[in-house]
Amino acid sequence: MKTPTGLQPLIDDGVIDAVLRPLKSGKEAAVYVVRAGDQIRCAKVYKDMAQRSFQQRVQYQEGRKVRGSREARAIGKASKYGRKQQETAWKNTEVDALYQLRDAGVRVPEPYGYFHGVLVMQLVVDADGHSAPRLGEVELSHAQACDFHRCLIRQVVNMLCVGLIHGDLSEYNVLVGPDGPVIIDFPQVVSAAGNNASRSMLLRDVNNLTASLGAWAPELLDTWYGEEMWALYEAGELHPDTELTGTFVHDTTKPDLEGVRHAINDAREEALIRQQGREAAAEMD
C-alpha cells in the first residue's frame, strides 16, 4: 500500500521497513500494521487537532502535568503556541501511560517507542495470528464472561493503584488475545488524584465493562466494583492484590452539588476548546 505521510519518516529512519495495511481509523488516530525486520507491529498515527473531535477534551486534560512553566502559561492563555504545546502533551499522554502501565503489570500492548509523533507498539493477535477482535465482537460463554470480568476489574484496580484511570474504557477498546483481554487506547487517560471528574470516569469505565459482559453473565449487573474500589482508593486501602466483593452500600443522604458544579465548568471549558478547534482549522485553510 502507499505509505501514509505520517509514517514515511519512520521508514526513512529505519524504525520500520514497510506499511502492510491499515488496521483501524478512529476519532483520535489511525492505526496501521507495519513490519520492522521480521516483526509485525502496529503504528498509531495521531490526527491533528483540527481533525479531531473536541467533545469533552478539557475534562480529560485536567490534572495532567505540563513539562515547563512557559508551556503551562501558554496553554492557560490558549495562545497559538499554547495550543501547539497542548497538542504535543495530548499525544505524549498515551505513550507515557503505556510504559507506566506496562511496568505495573497491566495487560496493555508492549510499546516499542515514539518516533516523529507516531507510537509503535505490539500488534495484539488472536490464537491464529490474526489481528485480535474487540471484546464487543466475540461471543462468550458464561464462564468466559465471568473470567474476563475478573481480569478486567483487576486491570482497572492495578491502573488505579498507580494513579491512572482509562477514562474511555468499553468493549470497543479491549482486545481479546489468546491469553485473555488486553486494554488499548489511552489518550484520554486521567489522573485519579488530579482530576475532579476521576470518580465519575472510573465508575463509567467499570459500568461499561459490566454492562457488556453482563449480557453473557447477568449476575454481574448486580455488582458495584467501581464504587467499592473508589471508596478503598480514597481511604488509601486499595492495593493491586486487594480482594474485591462487588458489594457497596450507597449513601443517599448527600446531594451531588459537586457534580452539578463540574458539569457547568465542563460546558464552559468545552466551549473554549471548540473555539480553539475552529481557529486551528481556519489556520490550516
Helix and strand sequence: HEEEHHHEEHEEEEHHH
Strands in their spatial order, largest beta sheet: 1-2-3-5-4
Secondary structure: helix percent: 40-55%
Low-confidence stretches: 51-56, 71-75
Shape: globular
Mean pLDDT: 84
What portion of residues belong to β-strands? 15-25%
Give me the Rg, rounded.
20 Å
SS elements, strand count: 9
Question: How can the largest sheet be summarized?
Answer: 5 strands, antiparallel
Separate helix tally: 8
Structural class: alpha+beta
Question: How far apart are the first and last residues' alpha carbons, in Å?
Answer: 28 Å
Quick take:
The protein is of the alpha+beta class. It contains eight helices and nine strands.
Provide a descriptive summary of the structure in words.
- The protein is built from eight helices and nine strands.
- The model is unreliable at 51-56 and 71-75 (pLDDT under 50).
- Strand 1 (18-25) and strand 2 (29-36) form a beta hairpin.
- It has 285 residues and is of the alpha+beta class.
- Helix 5 runs antiparallel to helix 6.
- The strands form three sheets. The protein has a five-stranded antiparallel β-sheet. A two-stranded antiparallel sheet has the order 6-9. A two-stranded antiparallel sheet has the order 7-8.
